[in-house]
Amino acid sequence: MRIAIIGAGIAGLAAARTLQAAGIEAVVYDKGRGPGGRTVSKRTEHGSIDLGAQYFTARDPAFQAVVAEWQAAGVVLPWSVTPVVLPERQPARPETRLVGVPRMSSLAKHLSDGLDLHTEVQVSEITRELTGWVLRERTGETLGEFDQVLLTAPAPQSQSLLAEPSPRLATEAAAAHMQPCWSVGLVLERPLEVDFDAGFPSSGPLGWVARAGSRPDRPHLPEIWILHATAAWSEANIEWSPEAVSEFLAQAFGDLLRRPPAIAERVAHRWRFARARGALKAADGYLEHEDILCAGDWVSDGRIEGAWHSGCAAARRLISAAERSGSPQGGE
């Protein structure tokens, strides 16, 4: 059996590793420059900056066991900081917050090791032919034939790909609401003298602020702060230029501090599909229709932990199907 996985975020990588461990061939495609989805890090002259997912949690014992393996491999560490609500300084819920080290993308790099991964490849078409499913790139090039397909890309992208091969799954993907997020990294001329390292502003355009150097294995100088706009502000201003966004959010950060920070450089990134606020919470952890499956945070509960569970659940379903059909492992 040969499986195509579209999307190399946490769900896609978890599925591919589970399939590989069972001896089933899995080929992963992602349109990005590297794996990780929203855990990727932005390369700058000041090093990598985590402009996407800031941390994750592990609440389920099965996922906690996997996280322990990641910690033993040196790619994940707990972040000792407890964020506060701003400006009230009320501590957020105490829990273990985890980060990839030395950058968030390190986790995806670890998970992708040894996989048949193809980056900077944008799948634009999935068609059913007599010999199985055929994937084509946007240039029209055929990527190969597969027995089954697993989509782990964000819901809107999955919906577009599913319109022809599975209108039923396309409809389900359309029901998963994903919100955008503008993210900005502020490189400061000198460190801020503030009594917090991370926080959730309770009003205004900012939804998250964090001192990058407060997280393990990050440099302290130059001091860099990460700003995330709220979903509402990001959606209302999604087509602004990165320059306009970074200037506006830097001003909002100064207003929050009650003094403008001395900024050396600003770096902005637009995440069109950042948060799965309308996650489907699928009972099985995946969606399925006629040899096409969907998995990811939008299928489960919107969290990194949910994405991992969803990818693993979809992979187990594919392994079970292979065992029932008697398909040769590894493909032919």
UniProtKB/TrEMBL annotation:
A molecular function GO annotation: oxidoreductase activity
Q: Which residues form the Amine oxidase domain?
A: 101-319
Name the domain of life: Bacteria
Which Pfam families does the record cross-reference, listed alphabetically?
Amino_oxidase, NAD_binding_8
What does the record list as coiled-coil region(s)?
none
Name of this chain's protein:
NAD/FAD-dependent oxidoreductase
